[in-house]
Write a structure and sequence with these properties.
Blueprint: E1 17-22, E2 25-35, E3 41-44, H1 46-56, E4 58-67, E5 72-77, H2 81-94, H3 116-125, E6 128-134, E7 137-138, E8 145-150, E9 156-167
Antiparallel strand pairs: 1-2, 2-9, 3-8, 4-6, 4-9, 5-8, 6-7
């Protein structure tokens, strides 16, 4: 077993923005850069992704969000200062940074970030969400927000957003 992680490489880099359309169906993708300020941070992306959906012109379809990092996650929850503190405390209690992890041990891993806890926390929250679009708007509950969870910051993170669905010509 190797001490190094397996690297995944694309033959061509992901474009910052892409789009394709056929008939009344369109796919629009954008890369969203997120600057995080703390090792464990929660950033509300709701307004950003709602604006993307509105710009896309898709009236009925799907929004898919994907974190391009193993220690950064995307999830849906309420956004409130007290709850953010609770979320961070829960993650710190559930996956302690002080626990022994082979990923942090030079005998087993070449990772120098000492961030096994970050990988495990991100694994709990997930790296993607898919949401519905209806009437040209994101389908989201009253208290639901789209959140980016930084588990190993501060850093600049990359989130890939893709909107796909039916585009209705508003001039018809």
């Amino acid at each position: 077993m190797s001490k190094s992680s397996v690297v995944t490489a694309r033959e061509t880099p992901v474009s910052k923005t892409t789009s394709a359309a056929a008939g009344g169906f369109a796919v629009i993708a954008e890369t969203i850069a997120v600057d995080t300020g703390e090792r464990l941070d929660i950033i509300d992306l709701t307004e950003t992704v709602m604006a993307l959906v509105r710009r896309s012109g898709v009236s009925e379809g799907l929004l898919s969000l994907w974190s391009m990092h193993t220690t950064c996650c995307i999830f849906i929850n309420e956004s409130q200062a007290a709850l953010e503190v609770d979320m961070k405390a829960y993650l710190e209690t559930t996956v302690s940074r002080e626990h022994y992890y082979r990923h942090n041990d030079p005998e087993h891993s070449d990772c120098d970030r000492q961030n096994a806890d970050s990988h495990l926390r991100a694994m709990l929250l997930g790296h993607s969400v898919t949401m519905q679009i209806s009437g040209g708007e994101l389908v989201i509950g009253q208290w639901q927000r789209v959140l980016c969870g930084e588990m190993d910051g501060p850093r600049t993170r990359t989130i890939r957003a893709q909107v796909q669905g039916l585009v209705v010509n508003k001039s018809s």
